[in-house]
């Protein structure tokens, strides 16, 4: 069973990385290169979107479970901004933003669940092996 959770957490890890990179590219496109609804590119707003995401990159790569939990909490704020933006100005990129945030949130949440179960199962197997040696 541990191997199954390990495999599932691997899938969600790569889903998180792909959707994370896609969201970063989307923010660069929508905030700097192709702003919509009569807006102009703003480096300060782009920084407010990108810097918090980039702060989580090292801990996401190391697969720290607690960092994934905090990352999910932070993504809720991104969702709260993305939905009215998509409903107010319906361009393809603006509609893609909440979709990517939901995919990223769901993948990160499931990664927490499956990674913690895989680690728990691995520690139980190691504990059982240590007891059998004695």
TrEMBL record:
Q: Which Pfam families match?
A: DUF2069 (PF09842)
InterPro entries documented for this protein: DUF2069_membrane
Record's keyword terms, sorted: Membrane, Transmembrane, Transmembrane helix
User: What name does this protein carry?
Assistant: DUF2069 domain-containing protein
Any transmembrane segments, and where? 12-34, 40-61, 68-87, 93-112
Could you tell me which species this protein originates from?
Dasania phycosphaerae
Q: Do the record's keywords include Acyltransferase?
A: no
């Amino acid at each position: 069973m541990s191997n199954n959770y390990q495999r599932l957490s691997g899938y969600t890890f790569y889903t998180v990385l792909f959707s994370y990179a896609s969201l970063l590219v989307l923010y660069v496109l929508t905030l700097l290169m192709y702003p919509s609804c009569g807006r102009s590119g703003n480096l300060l707003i782009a920084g407010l979107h990108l810097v918090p995401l980039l702060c989580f990159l090292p801990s996401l790569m190391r697969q720290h479970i607690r960092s994934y939990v905090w990352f999910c909490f932070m993504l809720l704020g991104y969702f709260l901004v993305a939905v009215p933006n998509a409903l107010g100005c319906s361009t393809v990129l603006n509609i893609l933003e909440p979709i990517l945030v939901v995919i990223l949130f769901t993948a990160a949440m499931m990664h927490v669940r499956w990674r913690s179960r895989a680690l728990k199962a691995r520690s139980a197997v190691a504990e059982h092996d240590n007891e059998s040696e004695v």
